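One-letter codes give the sequence; the fold follows as tokens. An example follows:
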Amino acid sequence: MRGLVVAGMILVNFSMLGAGFQQFAIYPILAHADWVGFTVADFVFPAFIFMVGVSIALASRSSEGLNARTFKRIVSRSVRLFVAGFILTNLLYQWMHGWSFDGGFRLMGVLQRISLCYGAAALLQRRLTERALLGMAIAVLVLYWPLTLMPIPDGTVTNLWTEGTNFVSWFDRVALLRCWEP
């Protein structure tokens, strides 16, 4: 599965870069759906998150628990992935904007989000019982729904059928998208 998802990621990214910079036409299935819909491009990130979860479960079969060495290894791996993602995201972002640092830096990208998911999931998996993990997964899914229905602080009317008009999207734009703006 990992090989197929990586191949899909390369195909989607190459087609998007080619379309943006070389004016190539791309197949619609290789572009992200505007808002309602699902394409090959929309499958890549969830597949990576799924593989991270499976890898954590398979690697944590031992009854080692969460000792200092394991904690340090998990945090170190998560930080390295976050930093690598930050560098790659901003190199591409600056290249696309003509190396103008007037637009600031992007804090969150795909690798940064994967690193945060990995770090949290690996630490929780080592610390909690299977029953507690199941309860936490259910709680996250149930509590996420009210977040999408909360009023948006900027006064925009919440509408789940319109892109970017819910609290979760607002929080992502305001708190996570940029770490520095001039």
Summary: Strands lie at 105-106, 178-180. The mean pLDDT is 81. Residues 1-59 form one domain. The helical segments are 2-22, 40-59, 68-96, 110-127, 130-149, 167-176.
